[in-house]
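S1.2 Input.
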Amino acid sequence: MAPRTGAVASAVLWLPIVPFTGGLGASAGGLAVGAGVSAVLHVVYMTVLQRGYAAGALSTVYATARGTGPAVSAGLAVLLLGEQLSVTAVVGIALLAV
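S1.3 Output.
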């Protein structure tokens, strides 16, 4: 199964379950936006990862993907959600990235 197909199929499969999890809040609009953004991010991530696997060695691509994921997530949380990282969190993220 192609990576994009798998991500889309997963999003469609789990979509009916989301209302029972509390979603992103009380509004259905927020839930739909959250699900849509999540689906797009997963498809992009899987596509980039598969292209990396096609172009490079598995040991390099896998380690790079696993190391940059926490750093990108934390960076986006700071920029988009106004999160404030503690010194311990920054050190932990740096250790994972290294």
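S1.4 Remarks. The radius of gyration is 16 Å.
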